[in-house]
Amino acid sequence: MNPIKLLLVDDDPLVRAGLSFMLGGADDIEIVGEAGDGTEVAGLVAERRPDVVLMDIRMPTMDGLAATEALRRRPDAPEVIVLTTFHADEQVLRALRAGAAGFVLKDTAPAEIVEAVRAVAAGEPVLSPSVTQQLITRVTGDDPQQGRRERALGRLALLGEREREVAVAVGRGASNAEIAAELFLSVATVKAHVSRILTKLDLNNRVQVALLAHDAGLLDGVE
Predict the structure, then answer these.
(1) What is the Cα–Cα distance from 191 to 197, expressed in whole angstroms?
(2) pLDDT tens-digit profile of 166-192?
(3) How many C-beta atoms lie closer than 10 Å to residue 108's C-beta?
């Protein structure tokens, strides 16, 4: 199996050195490049073709949010994990809405960061819906932004009934196998539904599905 190609982006060379030492020790991860600012990311991604980018939020010229938004517009976009010091940060939430697959704190245990990279490379998000809800609540308050629920419901109206059920289950953090068991479907059918949901709603990943379901009020009461 080919190793996961990883690009490190952080303006602190000591942080990059620590991450490189920590992640470079994993047999299935290959660090293919480092960047000190978001302005360097596009060129390195085109040249090195990483599978995953570990992206710092705060950088001096182009921050991680702008770099993530630019990356996720690419047709061959790598997955992005946001690296931050605060779990309740408006920029983190905006990065998730822009297509980042999740976030890790800079003081996260090394083994957990390694597992996060592996999970994202495998197409899984690296945060639970409950964490997503806590983040939204702490950043925006208990009530959704005016009109956000209506817009989210309008977008979800594009889905068929079964696709909507799958979308809500994805929002609850259920795996494909768990959704299959709950809805009496095959795992392959669930995967096909998820793929169609992402295409119909023009979303990048399951985290964005969870955010949309939350905005629509479909995850109220989910722990």
Answers:
(1) 10
(2) 999 998 888 889 999 999 999 999 999
(3) 14
Residues 29 and 8: beta-carbon distance below 8 Å = no
Is this prediction's pTM over 0.90?
no
What is the rounded CA–CA span in Å between residue 193 and residue 170? Answer: 11
- Token reading at 30: 């290959």
Provide φ and ψ at 27, rounded to 5°: -60, -30
Rounded CA-CA distance 118/126 in Å is: 10
63: left (phi over 0), alpha (psi -120 to 50) or beta: beta
Which one, of 133, 47, 52, 150, lies nearest residue 100 by Cα? 52
Q: Are 92 and 74 in contact (CB under 8 A)?
A: no
Contact 94, 135 (CB under 8 A): no
Residue whose structure tokens are 């000190």: 36
**210 closest CA partner among 157, 156, 151:** 156
**C-alpha 156 chain-centroid distance:** 20
